[in-house]
Amino acid sequence: MSKAVPMHGFGSGGALLNFNVVGGTTAPEYPRENMIWVNTPNKITRWLFSADEPQNLTEGMVWFKTGVTGSVGFNALKNNEIQIYPLFVKQYASDALAERTGKIYQNNAWRDFSLCLYDSGDEFVDITGGWAAYAYKSSGFSDYASRSPGVTKNDSSITLSQVKHQWENDRNVRRSGALFCENAIDLTGRSVLKINIEQCDTENVGRLGITSVKKDGFTPIGEVSITGVGEFLLDIPENTGAVYVYIAMNGVSSEASLSFNAVRAQ
Amino acid sequence: MKTIYIGPDFKCHAANDGTMTAVETDFFDGKCNAYIEGYRLVPAGESWVRKDGVVFRGEMITPLMPHSELAAAQAQYEKDLLDRADLEAAYNYLLTGGTA
Questions:
Q1: Which residue in chain A has the smallest CA separation from B74?
Q2: Residues A71-129: tens digit of each pLDDT
Q3: Segments making up each domain of chain A, as ranges
Q4: Strands, DSSP E only, in A135-174?
C-alpha cells in the first residue's frame, strides 16, 4: 500500500505546477483550468495535500484531504504526472480546523469536491450537526415499536448494533432504528451518496438512505441495502435538494452490527 | 409486502406487460401507482450502470424524478381515498335513514 506524500504549497502555485489555489468568499472572476477555489473569509497562508491530517498546523493553513479516487481529480504537474483526488478541504483558523467548501475549475465549470459527512472519526459537525441514533423506523410499520440502535464512536469509525427483535419471524425488515445526521444536507449538484463499511456481521444488516423528514414513520426517498463490507452507493437524482441522510438497521433475527468509516456525497 | 414489476433499466411498474420481472418489496406499501412508477429498483444480486459509468449494486431503490413530485402524487391519492371514504360514510348514513 502506498503512502501519501504531502504536497506543501508555496503561495498560489509554482511554475511546475498545473494548478493554483485561491481563497475568497466569491468565485474568482477569471478562473482557469485546475484553479482550486477555497470558499473562506480567511487568508490562505499555505496549503497541504495529504491523506492524513497535518500535525503542524499554522494559522490560515489549508489542508486538502486526498483519496485514491474522488469526484474530481487533476494532474498536479505540468510536465509529469501526479494525479490528485481532493476529497474535502479544511482551514486552520482561530486554533481549530474548520470545514470549507472547495471547488476546482475544469472544462469551463466549477466542480465540487466530495461532500464529506463522516470520515474516520470526523462527523463534520458544521455540515451534519453530528450523527445521532433515533428509534425511528420507516413508514408503514406503525403497529411496531422500534429501538434506537446502539452507537459506538471511536477515532476511526462508528459502529451500530441492534439487538434481536421480537418480531424476528416476520418477513418485513424495514422497521428498526437509525443513525441520522442532525441537519438536512443539501445534495444539490451531487449524484451519488457513498458509505464505506468496514465491518458487517450479518447479511442485509441495514440500509443507507435519504429522507425529507427526520421522525418516526419517515418516508424513505431512496435506499441501498448494506450487505457486507466495502463501498455501497446510492444514486441521487437531480434536484434532490436538502435531505436527511441515515443509516438504518434492519430488524434482524439475531444481534447484529455494522461499522462504517466514511460517508460522502459526490 | 407489495408486488411490483421491473422493466428495462430497472424501472418500476405497477402492472406487468408480460415482459417484466415481479419483485416483492415493502418499500411501496400503501403507495399509489404513480409513486411506484417514479422509481428504479435494482434487485439484490444485480447491478445497474448509470450513463456516466457509475455502477450501483442492488438492492437499491431510488427515484427517477424529484421526490417532491412523487410525494405530491401520493398526497393527492391519499386525499382521494379520504374523500371517497367520506362519501361512502355519507351514503351509508343516508341509506340507514340517519341512524348509522
A1: A219
A2: 789 999 998 899 999 988 999 999 988 888 899 999 998 988 888 899 889 998 988 99
A3: 7-113, 128-265
A4: 150-153, 158-162
Shortest alpha-carbon distance between residue B83 and chain A (Å)? 21
**CB distance A192–B66 less than 8 Å?**
no
pLDDT, position B48: 96
Closest among A129, A78, A255, A220 to B27, alpha carbons compared: A220
The phi, psi pair for A159, rounded to 5°, reads -110, 130
Distance from CA of B87 to the nearest CA of A (A): 25
Query: Cβ–Cβ of B59/A139 closer than 8 Å?
Result: no
Q: What is the mean pLDDT of chain A?
A: 85
Cα Rg of chain B (Å, integer): 18
Do the beta carbons of residue A83 and residue A67 sit within 8 Å? no
Q: Which residues of B touch A212 (CB under 8 A)?
A: 67-68, 71
A128-265 folds as Jelly Rolls (2.60.120)
Residue B30: is its pLDDT beyond 60? yes
Q: What is the per-residue pLDDT for A142?
A: 52
* Distance (Å) from the alpha carbon of B37 to chain A's nearest alpha carbon: 14
At A116-145, the pLDDT tens digits run 899 889 998 988 999 999 988 777 655 566
Record: contact B62-A220, CB cut-off 8 A: no
